[in-house]
Each structure stands twice: as C-alpha cells, then as structure tokens.
Amino acid sequence: MKRILTAVVLIALVFAIVFFGHLWMITLFAALVAELAAYEYLQLASRSGAKIPLWWIAAATASIFVVTYVSPIEARLPVFSALAFVLFTVSGFRAPLKRVLLDTSAGLFGLMYIAYPMSLLPLIWNLDEGRPLLVFLMACVWAGDIAALYIGKNFGKHKLAPKLSPGKTWEGSAASLAGSMLVAAGVFWVGDTLSARGNMVLHIQEPLWQLLLLAAVLNAAAQLGDLLESAIKRGADVKDSGTMLPGHGGILDRIDALLLATPVLWYALLIKDWLHVGRF
C-alpha cells in the first residue's frame, strides 16, 4: 500500500509541474531530486571505497542546474571542467595518494550519471513540444517498469542478468518493452484525439511508427539504466540506494531508468535536428 500511495503522489506531482509549472519550477524540482540522488550515490561510493566530499557533490550538482538555466548550453562543458579540476585539487591534497584517482573519478562519474541527465529535463520541457515529450518519456519508462515488475514476478523463469539483478527475467524484459510501446501508442492516440478537438496539450507531430521506435529505444535504455544501478548497489553490497521513499527504497532506485532514457531522448532529438528529418 505504501508503494502504491508513494507512486500516486509522485506521479501527480510530476505531471502537475510538467503541465502547470514554469521553467524555473521544473528546473528546481529536477535539481532537488538530483541533489537527493547524488547524496545516495555518495553513500554508495563511500561503501565502495571512494570518499567524495559532500560539499563538492552538492555544490557541483547545483552548479550544473544553475548554468543550464541561466547560460547557453555550450557553457556546461567549461563548468564541468572547472568542477573536475576543483575536485582533483581537493582530492590531491586531502586524500591518501592511492585514492586520489578513485575519489576524483567517482565524483565526476556521479556528476555525469545524475546531474547531467536530470539537467536535460528542463531543456526538453522548454522545447516547442517539450511537455508532451516529457509525458511520453516518463510514461514509457514507468509503464515499462510496472510491466516488468508484475509480469516478471508472476511469470518470469529465465534470468536476464543474475549477477547484476537476480530478480529480473527475460519475460519481464519483454513485458517491459511491450508495456512501453503500448503506452506510447496510447499517448499518441490521446494526443491525436485531443488535437482534433483543438487541444494541443499532448500533440506530438511525428507519425506513430516513429514514436513506437523511439519508445523501444527508450525502453532499452531504461532497462539498461536499471541494471547498471543494480551493479553499483551490488558493488556497494546494499539492496536499496536509500530509504527516502516509503515502499520504493531510495531516490536513485526510482530514477535509475530515467537517468539513461533521458539522455537517449535528448540524443534522438539532436540526431533528428542534425539530419534535418523533422522533429518530435
């Protein structure tokens, strides 16, 4: 019951911000989620042997969102570089020499793994069709996760990646893919129906076959993201990344699929733009 209630509250909050919020609201919300997930990542990294300064991971995560909000997108790379050198310097003088590379690389990976993907959410939201795109992204990820959970739990027999996540099965993986594509078709149908009545709130101009293809790619990325977060947790010898969400574990456990699916959507948008084949 806790799991269902938590999910309902979170989904309602996310959709409220997406549809009724402003750019600063979704940026602030994404930054807050990223900060909490980064804190959980810091704990996991610590259990794996890396000691990342809490003040650095918090300030660095905030910096990525600030520069994304107030500056051109090209400004993020110099900020990443500056943050890298700060952490390198701090680690060089603070940590035992044998841990300098470990601490620095673990900190930078955490920034790329959590802050960068989450900072793409407000960028996507700010596109011409950004709101329906975010709904499409999250619906695909969440539907795939739910389908994998229930089908895999009840009918799964063949292990997908037992070393990383013993509970995941090929049956659950196939159900996840089917769930994402089914929901993608549903989002397209709802958006098309509303558009015919003059409501463009879920309008995505691309044809259905492209959305189904994109849903399949996003689902593959989401499943990979889930498995890779499991790899981090197994390396740290923990079951959940935290206990912040009743019935769900940690923040990182809830957004692990999104952390890979979001950049994949962003890359798809960039590729379509570069190739001049239309846009989503």
Task: Provide the succession of SSEs.
Answer: HHHHHHEEHHH
Uncertain regions: pLDDT < 50 for 5+ in a row? none
Class of secondary structure makeup: mainly alpha
Radius of gyration: 19 Å
Beta content comes to: under 5%
Indicate how many domains the architecture comprises: 2
Mean pLDDT: 90
Termini separation comes to: 37 Å
List keywords for this structure.
single chain, 280 residues, mainly alpha, 2 domains, two-stranded antiparallel sheet, 2 strands, 76% helix, 3% strand
3D structure, described in words:
- The chain is an all-alpha fold.
- It has two domains: 1-126, no CATH class; 128-280, no CATH class.
- 76% of the residues lie in helices and 3% in strands.
- The chain has helices at residues 2-20, 23-47, 54-70, 76-94, 100-125, 130-155, 170-196, 208-236, 251-275; strands spanning 159-161, 165-169.
- Strands 1-2 form a two-stranded antiparallel ribbon.
- It is globular, with a radius of gyration of 19 Å.
- The two termini are 37 Å apart.
Could you provide a short overview of the structure?
By secondary structure, this protein is mainly α. It has two domains: 1-126, no CATH class; 128-280, no CATH class. It is 76% helix and 3% strand.
Which helices and strands, and how do they pair?
Layout: H1 2-20, H2 23-47, H3 54-70, H4 76-94, H5 100-125, H6 130-155, E1 159-161, E2 165-169, H7 170-196, H8 208-236, H9 251-275
Antiparallel strand pairs: 1-2
